[in-house]
Every structure is written in structure tokens, then in C-alpha cells.
Design brief:
By secondary structure, the protein is α+β, with helices and mostly antiparallel strands. The chain is 46% helix and 13% strand. The chain is built from 16 helices and twelve strands.
Length: 413
């Protein structure tokens, strides 16, 4: 979960959810969770409210062992369990980070530590936590190029930009990795490979919780707000839920309290924020079904294509839209405008219907293409299914929008 500009907004806004479909299968008996619980207990944390489980639809998560009441504390994770830049500085990496110039970013410090500890294997004191982390991620930076090509255009552009930034980040970090050679018997190039770095970056970007910004002279000016929270980060996302979560300076624990109740043996959720599905896929690697924040983005090129060619003020209007960040329009916003005049309203509805039909045709074509690829590229079926889910959710929005626009148009005839 979360780097500078806007990362705080991507940090999990923790919330709780109740659903009759959220019952899961207890997995606390599995060796990796037994070891994790033992490790957490040594660090003064023992959970009496939740237990690891597997759920239909969401996969691995945390299940309530008791009925949770509104305002009840569900997790209070001691600072000793959190993995932060303080952890890194106190480690064998601290001396190398302190003398490196220019100063490292907090994100790079955490990624370096994760790669090094993963390489240490059984020798790592963080092994119980590392063992329950995902072995791979499904963020667009991890998808095959031919799968990225199937994403909606706005998301495809952002995914490629993100991949480029990450590759540049890795390349610019190689000299620092080389400085760590005295710590390892193997060549650092084989330890700090791009694939290992990618795994570490995804771990931080998708799983970190927000901490109050810290400032150390040995780090760059980039906000130091990340904290990996073992066990707590097993909580899955739901856009419909609400909890209160923050680091308590008095108890020195990261605490989560319910805002709503939750029945016994149901999945407990948090919310990463009011994100649409393209944002969720870009930053976290998943799509939320029935997401109330879901939308379809309409680019400047599509607007220009379908707006009346006789409009002499077209360039000025587009410039105004761009200046006010209205170019990437969402359908749910388009459908809530004020009526200025019957003529303008009729013209606007005509344009909106044409754009909507265009997107429906494009979406159906992409779904057919994904379906064909799923039959041909068996090795990519999981990645393709993820993309298929995104397009399917967008099609639902477009079909609903088409129905609303048709009803509005009928009112004028």
C-alpha cells in the first residue's frame, strides 16, 4: 500500500463489513499461521477476536471468532510487530544506509530490507511473516505485456508509466545494492534482481498501512509513512465498510476499531479508500465486484470525436475542461448535470448516447478478445480472468448508463 504524492490517499482506510456470504473455512491450523501466531506472541500480540480463514470470492482473510460490536477493538498490534524504516535502520543495513549519498528514499530502504530478509531464509527473524506474504502479485507491473495491452486505454497508459518508473527506480538503486556486497557471500546482482525487487515493491505498495510521517536525516525528503503490519494485513478490502484505524501514540500500537457490528464466523473487512476499479487494479492488483465507486473514463480524444463539429468554441471548451480536470470524465458524474436549456440538453444526451454506444461496442469486442486468448494462452488464464472481470464490471456501468440515457431521451420526444 503506499509512496509520496497521493500515497496517503492510497493507504488503507480501514473499515468493517457484515455479509451472509462471508463465512469461511478456518486455516489457523496451517503451519505458516501457527508459526506466525507464535512469532506475534513473542512480540506481545495474541489475537482473541480473529482467525485466518479462506473465503469464497475474496480468498485468504480474517474471520471473526466472536460477535463484534460497534466501537469494539478488533486489532491492537504492538509497535514491535511493525516493519518500518526504524526496523531497517536498527538492522545490519543501518550503517550502509546512513553513509550512502545521496540519501535513500524510505521506500527503497524497505524494499532492500525485504529482499535481503527473503534471501536470508531460515536465518531471518522475519521469516514467519515473510512466509505468509504472497509469492507473486497481480498489479499491472507484474502482468505480461500482452495482457497489459488488453486493459482500458487510460489504465494501460498508467500501467506502462508505472512500469517505466519502477524500472528506472531499480536501475538507479543498483549502485547502492553493490555497496552491500560485504554482507553477502553471493553476488548482490543475483540477490537484488529485478524480480526480487519487484516483489518487494509490490509488497510495500499493496500492503503497507499509513503511519504519521517521520523524518530522518539519513533518508531523502520523500514522506516516510509506510509500515508493514503482519497479520493485520490479512484483512481484505470491501468498499462498503467502515472502521477507525491509526497508530496510537500512547499505547504504541496500531489499532483498528469497528464502526459497525460483525457476526461470529464472518469475514472482517477493511477499505483501502473510495477507489474505482481501475485504481484498485493499478495499485493493489484486484477488481472489486459491485464497487459503488466504479466508473468508466472518457478521454479527451473520445469527447472531441463525438462533440458537434459545428461548434466554433470547441477548442476553448476542451481547454476549460482540461484546466479543471474534467477531461477524464466518469459516467456517474455525466449523468448528474443540470438542465440549461432543452436544446442543449437534447444535444448533450445525443452525444452521451453516442459515446456510451461506442464504449459498449469496444467493451464487448475486448471481452471477446480476452475470451479467445483464455482458450489459447492457458498459462495466462489467471491474469486474463482479472482483466475480463474489469471489463465486465465496466460493461455493467455502460449498460446501466445506456438505460438511463434512453429514458431521458424518451422524455424529450
Amino acid at each position: 500500500m503506499k509512496k509520496g504524492r497521493g500515497r496517503t490517499s492510497r493507504i488503507r482506510r480501514r473499515k468493517l463489513f457484515r455479509s451472509s456470504e462471508s463465512r469461511g473455512v478456518n486455516e489457523s491450523y496451517k503451519p505458516e499461521f501457527i508459526e506466525l501466531k507464535k512469532w506475534l506472541k513473542e512480540r506481545k500480540f495474541e489475537d482473541m477476536n480473529l482467525t485466518p480463514a479462506r473465503f469464497p470470492g475474496t480468498g485468504r482473510g480474517l474471520m471473526s471468532k466472536i460477535s463484534l460490536q460497534e466501537g469494539q477493538m478488533i486489532i491492537s498490534l504492538p509497535e514491535s510487530c511493525l516493519l518500518t524504516t526504524d526496523t531497517v535502520i536498527r538492522s545490519y543495513l543501518g550503517a550502509y544506509i546512513a553513509k550512502w549519498q545521496p540519501p535513500l528514499s524510505p521506500l527503497l530502504a524497505l524494499c532492500t530490507f525485504l529482499v535481503a530478509e527473503k534471501h536470508a531464509g531460515d536465518r531471518s527473524v522475519w521469516k514467519p511473516y515473510l512466509e505468509v506474504l504472497p509469492k507473486a502479485y497481480t498489479c499491472p507491473v507484474c502482468l505480461e505485456p500482452e495482457v497489459v495491452d488488453l486493459l482500458p486505454k487510460p489504465l494501460k497508459a498508467k500501467a506502462r508509466e508505472q512500469r517505466t518508473r519502477l524500472q528506472e527506480f531499480f536501475t538507479s538503486s543498483r549502485d547502492f545494492f553493490s555497496s552491500l556486497q560485504p554482507l553477502f557471500s553471493e553476488a548482490v546482482e543475483s540477490i537484488f534482481s529485478y524480480s526480487a525487487f519487484l516483489w518487494a515493491w509490490c509488497t510495500v505498495n499493496t500492503r503497507a498501512v499509513y503511519m504519521k510521517p517521520r523524518r530522518r536525516r539519513c533518508f531523502s525528503v520523500e514522506p516516510d509513512t509506510y509500515a508493514l503490519a503482519p497479520y493485520l494485513d490479512l484483512l481484505n478490502h470491501s468498499p462498503d465498510v467502515q472502521v477507525k484505524a491509526a497508530f496510537n501514540e500512547e499505547t504504541r500500537c496500531y489499532e483498528i476499531r469497528t464502526v459497525s457490528s460483525c457476526r461470529k464466523h464472518e469475514e472482517v473487512f477493511i477499505c483501502y479508500g473510495p477507489h474505482d476499479n481501475q485504481r484498485l487494479l493499478l495499485e493493489y492488483g484486484f477488481v472489486s465486484i459491485h464497487n459503488p465507486h466504479a466508473c468508466v473514463y472518457v478521454s479527451k480524444d473520445i469527447l472531441v470525436k463525438y462533440l458537434p463539429s459545428t461548434d466554433k468554441q470547441m477548442k476553448k471548451k476542451i481547454s476549460i475542461l482540461k484546466d479543471h480536470d474534467f477531461i477524464d470524465t466518469c459516467w456517474k458524474k455525466v449523468l448528474l448535470g443540470e438542465i440549461i436549456s432543452d436544446t442543449n440538453e437534447k444535444t448533450s444526451l445525443d452525444v452521451a448516447q453516442k459515446i456510451c454506444r461506442y464504449f459498449i461496442e469496444e467493451t464487448n469486442a475486448m471481452l471477446q478478445k480476452v475470451s479467445r486468448m483464455k482458450a489459447e494462452e492457458i498459462a495466462l488464464i489467471n491474469q486474463l480472468t482479472l482483466v475480463e472481470t474489469l471489463w465486465t464490471e465496466e460493461l455493467k456501468i455502460l449498460q446501466a448508463s445506456a438505460g438511463i440515457l434512453n429514458n431521458l431521451q424518451t422524455a424529450f420526444t
